[in-house]
Write a structure and sequence with these properties.
Helix content is 56%, strand content 4%. The protein is mostly helical. It has 2 domains: 76 residues; 159 residues, Intergrase catalytic core (hpI Integrase, Chain A), CATH 1.10.443. It has a 3-stranded antiparallel sheet, with no helix packed on it. The longest helix is centred in the N-terminal third of the chain and has 20 residues. It is globular. The N and C termini lie far apart (66 Å).
């Protein structure tokens, strides 16, 4: 690891106070590049660096690497480690509507679950909880009973270590307590496997895939989509989802626009006219 990179990691850890996960992500990206190129990043020709980065075919992955590199370059420029201010351009990613499920489709999936045993009750409660709370799966799996109080959910292990409180639907809360009552294991976390250990991300993925054919994250999109379609303010949705920037939440406005277009296409007499 170069001295410049070591200084950058200390800066984002101590001065910027980024979360451990964020620091580790920067470290992983930048150390991997230095290891591949066998040189400090600021001593490299920009074109040579881009040649290496272009090997990442997934544009989202590429942009994450570029974000790490740009943050490092900006730090080096401000610290006068580098005399030139370098900023690499991000790859263009087409804006796609997030995949989501309607409430009716989620209910149909829930009908397939055998809730006569505690495993079935767990799967049922997990799906309801994800849709009712909009939590990330990483936040969901850290849930303890102490995090639920008087119809409110305290999300303590949020992305970027930013805690938030969101209301939790009674039906989801009821399903959780019915699952807990059926499962007599003494456990720290709400969601557990058949051995009583903490449920893994892979297991959670298998559960939602089995009954709904989607990943857990689609239920987060479904939560946000339902709120937007119901008329919720975008900034309220931002707070509920725990987005640090409104720009992240604005992707759901495309759904709102599509709803408006569909309404006009169906209801307005001129929409079907051929000029």
């Amino acid at each position: 690891m170069s001295n410049e990179l070591e200084a950058f990691l200390e800066y984002i850890t101590v001065t910027k106070a980024l979360s451990k996960k964020s620091v580790q992500a920067y470290k992983s990206d930048l150390c991997a590049l230095e290891k591949t190129l066998r040189k400090s990043l600021i001593s490299l020709d920009t074109q040579k660096l881009m040649n290496v980065l272009s090997l990442y075919e997934n544009k989202r992955t590429l942009n994450r690497k570029l974000s790490s590199v740009n943050a490092f370059f900006e730090f080096c420029y401000k610290q006068q480690f580098n005399s030139e201010k370098t900023k690499l351009k991000f790859a263009k990613i087409p804006k796609l509507l997030p995949k989501f499920l309607s409430y009716e489709n989620i209910l149909k999936g829930l009908d397939f679950i055998d809730t006569t045993n505690w495993i079935g009750k767990r799967d049922y409660a997990l799906i309801l909880f994800l849709y009712a709370s909009g939590t990330r799966i990483s936040e969901c799996l850290e849930l303890t009973l102490d995090d639920i109080e008087d119809g409110w959910l305290h999300v303590r292990h949020a992305k970027g270590e930013k805690e938030r409180i969101v209301p939790l639907a009674k039906v989801a809360k009821k399903a959780i307590y019915e699952y807990i009552e059926a499962n007599n294991m003494n456990k720290e976390y709400v969601w557990c496997n058949y051995q009583g250990g903490k449920l893994s991300r892979i297991s959670a993925y298998k559960i939602t895939q089995k009954y709904l054919g989607v990943s857990p994250h689609v239920l987060r999109h479904s939560y946000a989509t339902s709120l937007i379609r119901g008329g919720a303010d975008l900034r309220v949705v931002q707070e509920l989802l725990g987005h640090s920037s409104l720009l992240t939440t604005q992707i759901y406005t495309h759904i709102q626009k599509q709803d408006l277009k569909d309404t006009v296409d169906v209801c307005h007499p001129m929409a079907k006219e051929q000029l």
